[in-house]
Structures are given as C-alpha cells and as structure tokens.
C-alpha cells in the first residue's frame, strides 16, 4: 500500500471540538493510479465516523471510492550500531585526552604557585645590612602572575572541553541503549490513519493531484476576547476581536489556517422530512429514498455455498445428479435438515415463500414442511418462527389460493420500528388470529411492504452479515456503537500493542481540557451566541500547540461605531464616569467577552462586553473621569394647598453644577429620578414637574439595561473650561386622607 505524506492545512475550532483538514499530494506510481493509499499521522482523539475525503485538485476522472480508518505505528529511525560503537570509543578517547591535559595543567599550576624569592641565611652576630634585589623580585612576581593567568585560562578551557566530552559520551551511550529492539518497541508511537480507495485514469506528472482529508477531534475549545484602543479624547478608536484557543487533540497546529465557529460540531444538520396530510382515501406512504426491498429468493444465492459446505463435511449426503435448492429431500418428498460443519442445522430455503408472495417464477415449490416455518426476510431478523411464516406454511398446507390469486388481494400487516443498534422484527402480530380457509374476505391477501427505520438508513453503522451466519446472511444489520473501536483496533495493526489503552489515555487527556479554568469574564460561545451561529476566519496562519493552555490570537478588526459619553448620577455618586457607545456595524454578531481597554499608550482596564447582534448598541464603562466636577444641592419645602387647604404640597428643588476641566468638548448625561405614583393612586396623588432648566427627557435604556421608573436625563454639551447649572423642581400633592396618622414625618 502506498503511504502518502500529508500536512495539516486548516482547522475550524467549534464551541466543543475542532474540524481539521489535511492536504496530501498524490504522484503516479509507475505511470498508473494507485488503488489504495494510506494517510498516516492522524491523532488518536480522531472520531472515525467523521472522516471525509475529496479531490481538491486533479484530473476529472480521478475519484475516491471508499475510505476507512485504521491505525499506524511509527518507530524511531534505525540506529547504526557499529557506527555508534566507534563514535562512543572516540568520545571516550577524547575524554581521556582532555583529562590528561587537565592534570598536566594542574601540576604546572601547583609548581608555579610554589615559586617564591629566597635569601641566604644570615648570622645574628655578624649581620651586615645589604641592598635588596627589588628588580629581581618584581621580575619573579610578574612572571608568576603571567603564567598563572595563562594556566588558569587554559584550565577553564579544558574543564569546559571535559564537560562537553562527558556529555558526548552520555549521548552515545543513550543512542546505543535506544538501539535495542525492546527499548525501541517501548518508544513506538501509535497514530490513527485513513485508507483511501482510488480510481481514475493517469495524468501528467507535471500536475500532481491534491487530496483533502477532513476529520473531527473533540479536544479543542475557544472563547472570544476583544482589544479596544482609544485616544485620550475618546473621539475614535479601533476594536479588534481575539480568540483564546485551547486544545489537547494530540497534534500541534503549526502554520494552519484557523477559523472559529459558534456552531456545535456534533449537531446534525439534516433537512427534516415533512409528511403531507391529505383528505380522502388512505394511500400508502411514498417509499423512502435510500431503501431497496430485499430481492425475492435471497437464500437461493447461497445454495451453492451451502452445497459446497455440506459436501466438504459429508460428501455422501447429497447425490450429484439431484438439484440442490438450499435443502435436501428424501425419496418420499420430505425435507431433511443437513448438518453443516459445526453441527448446526441448515435453514429451510426461502424460494417457495418468495414465489408465493408474488414472484414471476411459475416452477412448483418443493414439498412443504408444516412443522418448519421459513425465516423472515427482513434485514437484521434473527430467524425463528413468526406469524407471517406460520401463515405461509398454513396457506401452503391447505392450498387455499394460487400465487396469481394472492396478487389481487391486500394483506394488512403492521410492523414494529427497529431499535437503534440492534435487530428488530419487520412483521408484527396479525390483526386477526384466524388464518383458516373460508371466504375471500377472511383471507389475508398480500405481504405488507417493508418500511425501514432510521437505523437501517444509517449506512455508516450497517454491516453485511457473513454467509456463515445462517440467520441473517445477505442482509444489512445495524452494528452496535461499541463494536466500532474493536473493529478499528483489529483492522491493520501488526504489532502487539493495546489499542484500547491508547484510546483510553487519549480520552482522559481530552476530558482534562474541561477542567482548565477560562479567562476572566469570558463566556462560552454556545451561551452567548443565542439562536444564531457565526464563523470568524483569522487573518493569518497561526500556531497552537497541544499543551492544554490558553493561546490568544487576533481574529479581525471589527468596524464599529464609537461615541464617547460621560454619565453622572448625582443622587448616588457625585462623580462622572466615562462610557463609550459601541454600535455593531458588521453583518455578524459580536459575542460576549472581556474587553481590554487601552487609553492612549496606557492600559486602562478590562470590562465585560455583552452580546451584540448586528445593528445593536451597547454602553461600555471606562471608569471615573476626575476632570469633570459635579455638585448637587437640594432643598425641600412643605406647605398646604387645595381648595380647602386639606392637601399637603411637597416641593423638591434640585440644582446640579457641572464643570468641564478637560481640553476637549464633551457630552454629559446627568440622570435624576422623579417620584413615581403607585398604580391605582393616580387620581389622589399627583407629581407635577413645575420648573426644569434646561429641559430634560425620559431616558430610554439600551438593550440589556434595566429600566428605572421615573428616570429623567439631561444631555448637556460642555466646552473646555465651561461650567453649567442644571435645575429641576417638582411638587408632590398628597390629600389629607392619604397622609400618615400623627403627621407627615420625614427623615
């Protein structure tokens, strides 16, 4: 089999999992198209049912007929043992040489270090002062210092060379140790692989064919983040979307085209099949696409196979001059059961039943066997006696009607739906238990139409029963989901490794990915995307290693509208806050996530950004602005009013002073709240706004903000260095019947 190298070209990270695309370059082998090729190096966390292959570039006749998953074992490169032995001997010789030279330098250092000036001994009685030889002493000291400096430098070089030589010796010994076959087997790595079956005509060598292989892996996720850069004036800015990606798929993404998506990778996107509702006579449902009825006489296809099997077991049991049609008959016409290899009885043939249901053949059926019921023709049936088989045997024994008469009647037999992953019965119990002779109205007339379940249309999970399985051979059966791994583990592995343990380790690594905490204020895409899905392509190729750590990559620049506003609520806080109105002008949504705000050249803060559909506007807080001064003064008056003076008038005077100490023009929104009358008391209690300068208006909350009853807002434009006073007066009129007993006490 031809092994074709491939490279990872593109990865789309979904909310949970990733979709990877590999590109393989296919060359002709001896001027012919290879029948099968194998693509190695796929990760162990790959989902086998997601393999897809296509011809990206190539001749028109080239096509992919089939694809199946398998495993691949990669060993380290072979080691030249004699060469490594020679290298080890050379390294040991270098170590010995360096050690010898180092010992020589050490001896020289000790000898030169002992050089000291000496003087002749003088007697104390005859001591005569003399001139000291300073020149000789200085010359000796200079010589000793020079030699010691040179020898110490040489010693340092030899010590470094000695360390390098010992490291080389360790490396050579490790390579010799790894050259052992047992150690090499322990270092083998197991990968998944894909085998492609090709067909087509040869093409010129100058134009190689490109094959793309697509597969899904579960160990990846991403969350959105943003980067907002604003000038000091907050007049304009840029918003960039980033993606924090983490993956533990078992393969590094190096230089790939990355894209992130909010869609669920395992969600089925099949078009629903709508059934029509008709008023009138009942009509049979239309046949489902992708389904074909079992052919009549299916067991006759295996008559020769059964004959050969029985002949190999007991050659005397079947004469050569007698025709064999799936069973053996004695001279009296009674059917005998042939014991195949293994002692299991052969089944009764289905040919006679197929002819009675509507087969075009007019040959007489073999002698019936009332005690034995034919098997069910449904795919995946387990054989045995069914009521349909009993009805067929009873009809034959009584000779009720001919096959031509049966075609003119209708037989209504309900059927049971097939369960997922196993076999099911196609024919259910008969509606009427009486199957005797009688009139035409009492006789069932035709075998019902087989209606498949969804499991029989899932071709990826169907397997053809082998001919040795007498109960369901020649039929497709749904394969249980847990059998897939065993089939893959035993498909093409030629080395004694425990595939299931490798898969279990890979699943544990994938599950550990969800225990890694997410960055602050991040929201999973499936929670913030709501009812829509979007895909974002990264501008450049990127690298994401498989290390279970978060990696932040730039995605794209978002064209948004930014307008600076300052918000102040003097009744709560006598400070102004910087805000930016962000308008989404893109055709795709901006998902919820943290925003890193940079003001000028200085990092300011990180704020949460809610989900913004296309065309929506949100307010992003940027902290306190100390250059805007705010002061609020209040005054309260209480008086009586009304025609007879029986009402209490509560007058509130509000004065807000604003001062702009910034060097640019700003827009300030000052929020106040007017008392709200409870529901049902509008006729008794009244709130009148008597004097407001300048005019305020009812504040409209942005999407996502909680509306406040009775909220009013001034929108004031202040020039640099300008100050302005805002005034408002409102009166609350309360009748005497609504006052508290004992007087109007206020705090």
UniProtKB/TrEMBL annotation:
Where does the DUF4139 domain lie? 212-735
**Region Disordered: start-end pairs:** 276-460
Q: Where is the DUF4140 domain?
A: 11-109
Bias class Pro residues marks the residues at: 283-297
Output the Pfam families linked to this UniProt entry.
DUF4139 (PF13598), DUF4140 (PF13600)
Compositional bias of kind Acidic residues: 405-421
Question: What PANTHER family would the database entry show?
Answer: DUF4139 DOMAIN-CONTAINING PROTEIN
Name used for this protein in its record: DUF4139 domain-containing protein
């Amino acid at each position: 089999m031809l092994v074709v190298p491939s490279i990872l070209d593109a990865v789309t990270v979904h909310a949970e999992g990733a979709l990877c695309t590999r590109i393989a370059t296919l060359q002709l082998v001896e001027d012919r198209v290879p029948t099968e090729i194998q693509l190695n190096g796929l990760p162990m966390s790959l989902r086998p049912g997601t393999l897809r292959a296509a011809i990206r570039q190539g001749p028109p006749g080239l096509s992919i007929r089939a694809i199946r998953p398998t495993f691949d074992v990669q060993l380290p490169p072979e080691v030249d043992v004699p060469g490594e032995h020679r290298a080890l001997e050379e390294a040991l010789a270098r170590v010995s040489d360096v050690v010898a030279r180092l010992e020589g330098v050490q001896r020289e250092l000790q000898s030169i270090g002992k050089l000291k000036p000496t003087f002749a001994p003088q007697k104390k009685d005859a001591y005569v002062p003399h001139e000291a030889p300073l020149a000789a002493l200085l010359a000796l000291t200079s010589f000793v210092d020079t030699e010691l400096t040179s020898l110490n430098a040489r010693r340092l070089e030899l010590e470094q060379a000695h360390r390098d030589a010992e490291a080389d010796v360790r490396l050579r010994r490790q390579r010799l140790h790894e050259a052992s076959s047992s150690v090499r087997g322990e270092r083998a790595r197991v990968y998944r692989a894909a085998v492609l079956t090709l067909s087509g005509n040869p093409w010129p060598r100058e134009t190689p064919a490109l094959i793309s292989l697509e597969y899904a892996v579960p160990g990846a996720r991403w969350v959105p983040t943003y980067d907002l850069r604003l000038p000091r004036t907050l007049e304009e800015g840029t918003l960039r979307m980033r993606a924090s990606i983490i993956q533990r798929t078992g393969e590094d993404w190096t230089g790939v085209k990355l894209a992130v998506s909010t869609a669920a990778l395992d969600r089925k996107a099949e078009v629903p099949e709508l059934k029509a509702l008709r008023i009138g006579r009942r009509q049979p449902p239309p046949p489902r696409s992708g389904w074909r009825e079992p052919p009549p006489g299916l067991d006759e296809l295996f008559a020769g196979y059964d004959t050969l099997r029985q002949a190999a077991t007991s050659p005397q049991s079947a004469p050569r001059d007698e025709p064999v049609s799936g069973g053996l008959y004695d001279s009296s016409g009674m059917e005998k059961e042939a014991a195949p290899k293994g002692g299991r009885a052969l089944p009764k043939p289905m040919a006679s039943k197929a002819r009675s249901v509507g087969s075009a053949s007019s040959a007489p059926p073999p002698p019936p066997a009332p005690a034995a019921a034919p098997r069910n023709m449904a795919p995946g049936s387990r054989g045995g006696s069914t009521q349909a088989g009993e009805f067929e045997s009873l009809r034959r024994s009584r000779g009720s009607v001919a096959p031509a008469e049966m075609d003119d009647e209708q037989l209504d037999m309900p059927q049971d739906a097939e369960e997922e992953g196993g076999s099911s019965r196609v024919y259910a119990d008969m509606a009427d238990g009486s199957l005797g002779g009688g009139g035409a109205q009492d006789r069932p007339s035709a075998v019902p139409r087989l209606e498949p379940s969804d499991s029989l249309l899932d071709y990826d999970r169907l397997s053809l029963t082998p001919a040795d399985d007498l109960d369901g051979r020649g039929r497709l059966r749904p394969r249980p989901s847990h059998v897939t791994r065993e089939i893959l583990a035993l498909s093409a592995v030629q080395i004694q490794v425990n595939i299931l343990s490798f898969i279990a380790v890979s699943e544990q690594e994938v599950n550990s990915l969800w225990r890694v905490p997410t960055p602050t204020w991040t929201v999973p895409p499936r929670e913030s995307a709501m009812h829509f899905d979007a895909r974002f392509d990264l501008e450049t190729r990127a690298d994401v290693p498989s290390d279970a750590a978060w990696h932040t990559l730039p995605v794209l620049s978002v064209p948004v509208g930014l307008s600076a506003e300052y918000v102040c609520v003097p009744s709560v806080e006598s400070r102004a806050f910087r805000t930016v109105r962000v308008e989404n002008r893109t055709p795709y949504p901006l998902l919820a996530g943290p925003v890193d705000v940079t003001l000028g050249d200085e990092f300011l803060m990180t704020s949460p950004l809610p989900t913004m559909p296309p065309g929506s506007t949100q307010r992003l807080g940027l902290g306190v602005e100390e250059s805007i001064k705010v002061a609020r003064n209040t005054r309260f008056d209480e008086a009586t009013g009304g025609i007879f003076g029986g009402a209490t008038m509560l007058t509130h005077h509000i004065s807000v002073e604003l001062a702009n100490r910034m060097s640019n023009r700003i827009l300030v929104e000052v929020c106040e709240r007017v008392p709200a009358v409870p529901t049902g008391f509008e006729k008794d209690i009244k709130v009148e706004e008597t004097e407001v300068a300048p005019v305020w208006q009812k504040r409209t909350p942005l999407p996502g903000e909680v509306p406040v009853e009775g909220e009013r807002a001034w929108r004031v434009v202040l020039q640099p260095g300008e100050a302005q006073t805002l005034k408002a007066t409102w009166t609350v009129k309360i009748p005497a019947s609504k006052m508290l007993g004992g007087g109007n006490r206020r705090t």
